[in-house]
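Same chain as my last thread, 105 residues:
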Amino acid sequence: MGFTNIDVDALERLRDGGARIVDVRTEGEVARGVIPGASHIALDKLPTRFAELDQATPVVLYCQMGGRSAGAAQFLASHGFQQVYNLQGGINAWAAAGRPVGNLM
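reply #2:
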């Protein structure tokens, strides 16, 4: 597989440890809110922008429900990223767990 599916609690631990959180949803979806601290690289832009990510830093990807971000995680893993994580359930799981949703900085 090349990446690891994680839950909301694991995402918080990784984020607190300095992982890069990347939202791969569309601009319209991102406008409705993001996980605090996340950056945005739309899935269709990932092939041309993945070099912006540091391969030495863990990367957590998420989308609305976890499907698109799983594809993005597989893409990064196939390009040499060793520490790649996919948030199962996406931002929906994050919000359902009562975690905050903010605006992109």
